[in-house]
């Protein structure tokens, strides 16, 4: 079974009456079956994203092979996306190994440099049928352990969106409109008016990062306003670790390892199902 790029997966999602695609961070290989079960139960295609750190930890090949195998066995169309990466060599490695979508994050660079580097990635990715996500603006919180200072958070400006999409021909664009990476204790304050101004400027699919901190009500609103990909990462991590902490504290060392993991995977499956239903 082939992996689908974002544009292909989006077409399948639309056929199945989903307005947006959730892109869910895989934090460890053990949680992967839970992702697929949730997609199967909701008749949704599945977009899985992974950080460069986790990709290096697990091995790029193992991830590609595992996702292809489950996609075929369960008959769930899947896309494998490399999340936030600013190293072009790592991006090329992911593409060469079989990832079907990548994100080049040049949001920390001046606009011209961000455009130039995103174009380099696109020139490598598009002939290989791989979609590319770019980013404009600075999203708060932390990404792969690196914290963004409060003073560095910057909302995406509509003027830059125009220049960026015209200059790159990017497949999807991550924007900063108030969400925060890693937020799970409080809900974030979304700039709906800014989102509406940006959606009127471009047909390029827009991406919302930090989906964990978005209330269900805001999630429905942003999807109705035109957000087409929503990244959800922290919530699965929190549920998984929280459940494993509990089962490990209660269990014995000679209990089968899987007994510690089953409640964690069940919780992750519920997170995905609940989010996916908001996109219908
Ligand atoms: Zn992100």
UniProtKB/TrEMBL annotation:
Source domain of life: Bacteria
GO terms of molecular function: aldehyde-lyase activity; zinc ion binding
Binding-site positions, dihydroxyacetone phosphate: 182, 210-212, 231-234
Binding positions (Zn(2+) 2): 105, 135
Gene that this polypeptide is encoded by: fba
Annotated active site: 83
Protein source organism: Vibrio algivorus
Record's protein name: Class II fructose-bisphosphate aldolase
Keywords: Metal-binding, Zinc
Cofactor note (record): Binds 2 Zn(2+) ions per subunit. One is catalytic and the other provides a structural contribution.
């Amino acid at each position: 079974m082939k992996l689908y790029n974002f544009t292909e997966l989006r077409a399948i999602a639309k056929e199945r009456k989903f307005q947006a695609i959730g892109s869910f961070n895989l934090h460890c290989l053990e949680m992967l079956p839970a992702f697929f079960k949730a997609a199967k139960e909701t008749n949704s295609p599945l977009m899985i994203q992974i950080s460069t750190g986790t990709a290096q930890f697990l091995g790029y090949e193992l991830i590609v092979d595992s996702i292809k195998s489950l996609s075929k066995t369960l008959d769930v169309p899947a896309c494998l996306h490399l999340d936030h990466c600013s190293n072009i060599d790592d991006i090329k490695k992911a593409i060469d190994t079989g990832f079907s979508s990548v994100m080049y994050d040049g949001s920390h660079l001046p606009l011209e440099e961000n455009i130039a580097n995103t174009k380099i990635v696109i020139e490598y990715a598009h002939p290989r049928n791989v979609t590319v996500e770019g980013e404009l603006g600075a999203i708060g919180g932390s990404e792969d352990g690196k914290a963004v200072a409060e003073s560095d958070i910057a909302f995406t400006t509509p003027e830059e969106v125009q220049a960026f999409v015209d200059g790159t021909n990017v497949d999807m664009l991550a924007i900063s409109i108030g969400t925060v990476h890693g937020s799970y204790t409080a809900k974030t304050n979304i700039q709906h008016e800014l989102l509406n101004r940006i959606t009127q400027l471009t047909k390029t699919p827009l991406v919302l990062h930090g989906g964990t901190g978005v209330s269900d009500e805001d999630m429905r609103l942003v999807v109705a306003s035109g957000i087409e990909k929503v990244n959800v990462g922290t919530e699965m991590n929190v549920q998984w670790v929280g459940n494993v902490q509990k089962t490990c504290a209660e269990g014995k060392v000679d209990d089968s390892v899987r007994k510690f993991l089953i409640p964690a995977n069940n919780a992750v499956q519920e997170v995905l199902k609940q989010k996916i239903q908001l996109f219908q």
